[in-house]
Amino acid sequence: MSTSRFEQAQQYIPGGVNSPVRAFKSVGGEPVFIQRAKGAYLWDADGKQYIDYVGSWGPMILGHAHPEVIDAVKTAADNGLSFGAPTESETSLAQKICELIPSIDKVRMVSSGTEATMSALRLARGYTGRDKILKFEGCYHGHSDSLLVKAGSGALTFGVPTSPGVPAAVAEQTLTLPFNDLDQVESLFAELGDQIAAIIIEPVAGNMNLITPKPGYLEGLRKVCDQYGTVLIFDEVMTGFRVGLQGAQGLYGITPDLTCFGKVIGGGMPVGAFGGRADIMNHISPDGPVYQAGTLSGNPVAMAAGIKTLELISVPNFFDNLTAKTKSLLIGLKNAASRADIPLATNGVGGMFGFFFTDADRVESFADSMACDGARFNAFFHGMLDRGVYLAPSSFEAGFISITHSENDIADTLESAAEVMQTL
Ligand code: PMP
Fold first, then answer.
1. pTM higher than 0.90, yes or no?
2. What is the distance in A from the centroid of ligand 1 to the CA of 264?
3. Domain 67-314, CATH class in plain words
4. S-S: 263 plus which of 48, 59, 250, 408, CB 3.0-4.6 Å?
5. 319 CA distance to ligand 1 centroid (A)?
6. Annotated catalytic, 263?
7. Residue 225 near residue 133, CB atoms below 8 Å
8. What is the largest CA-CA distance in the chain?
9. Do residues 225 and 257 touch, judged by C-beta distance below 8 A?
10. pLDDT confidence tier of residue 3, bands split at 50, 70 and 90
11. Is the Cβ atom of 59 under 6 angstroms away from ligand 1?
């Protein structure tokens, strides 16, 4: 059944999907078409049930279709879908974000993570009067031109577009270095520091599987930015309200100048945001000259989902409970792997996790992640999917757990994992 659905989709939509990883290209086979979701579960268009560890790529931290979030959305929708004029709900969500995240004095809503990072970069460039930026290999910050650039080799690398269509003149302004290597950042800044507007980083990298920052690494970036007057941008589109209530910056105790959000702050609706120090944010139009806008920005239905979601994750012990679920899943996966004599490494932070088919004890760089056994991952992915466990269809994506994943769900997942590991 799904075959014909995918074929039909491919007739009208490039690759049959509206975002590439959904097409299952790297794992092979045909994507599952989802019809509905509730709590920890998805149901496909044929009625098959899955335990979901994708969670719409991060937003569904409360589980799917949380009744209070759905009610908030319905109530907002009854009042109209969009006005293109200010609403109190925008102030409420902005206030909540500013209260929860000490580094944020002011925040502007947008409709995606891509817009958030693109706008934060423009602001950093406008604020500093500099053009160059530094990003890290394997970090994904959405698909704006400046950020679709991958690393070359060496400490000082001028950008090469990863994607055709990114003008060389734009890509040249994006410098790239390996994640988790502070020495290379310090050498680059010694040479070019006074030309670099911003360092943008996923403080916990979730787009090359899951890589955590080495002790001292984020502190080092903060120091370099202070020394050279460079804006430190934490892209917390994935980690914000996901690894802890104060995001990765709260967890590691680092204060960035600007932060980007997405995913959880919209509770499943299209919302992104960027915010930070007032003296920088005041450069944004209409207070300042850096232009940024959006017809649907601060959409009232999306704000309602975001406000309710942030309210429900602010309850005591929410993140302790979520983190405990991640831990029990990862310990179980490691046990299942060792019983099957399969080498496996794992990383986990809050409600995010990664697992790696590798002999290495620790995975802490893009190169480490690239060196993992992709064929084995693909076989594991399909074995799990057959047994009703929906994992991200790529070994370079983090996994996500929700507060509705029960001990039974995790036990069922681990039973399937144990079976599949025996077949690898
Ligand atoms: N930044 C990070 C860290 C992300 O993980 C993503 C999306 N996965 C983005 C930015 C882009 O967000 P969006 O897909 O909403 O444009």
1. yes
2. 11
3. alpha beta
4. 59
5. 22
6. yes
7. no
8. 61
9. yes
10. low
11. no
Q: Cα separation of 66 and 103, whole Å?
A: 29
Lookup: tokens for 143: 């698909």
Residue spans of the domains in the chain: they are: 32-65+316-422, 67-314
Query: What is the amino acid identity at position 232?
Result: L
**Among 40, 10, 12, 11, which Cα is nearest to 22's?**
10
Residue 258 in contact with residue 277, Cβ under 8 Å? yes
Vertex 244 angle, CA 241 and 248, to 5°: 85
State the Cα–Cα distance between residues 392 and 31, nearest whole angstrom: 11
Closest ligand 1 atom to residue 115 Cα is 16
Do the interacting molecules here have an ipTM over 0.90? yes
Beta bridge pairs of residue 39: 64
Q: Which two tokens stand for residue 187?
A: 């050498």
Bridge partner residues of 325 (DSSP): none
Ligand 1 center to 424 CA (angstroms): 32
Q: Does the structure show a pLDDT above 90 at 109?
A: yes
Mean confidence (pLDDT) of the chain: 95
Q: If you ran DSSP here, which 8-state letter would residue 31 be given?
A: P
Determine contact, residues 399/54, Cβ cutoff 8 Å.
yes
Percent residues over pLDDT 70 in the chain: 96
Question: pLDDT tens across 124-136, in order?
Answer: 999 999 999 999 9
- Determine the CATH number of domain 32-65+316-422: 3.90.1150.10
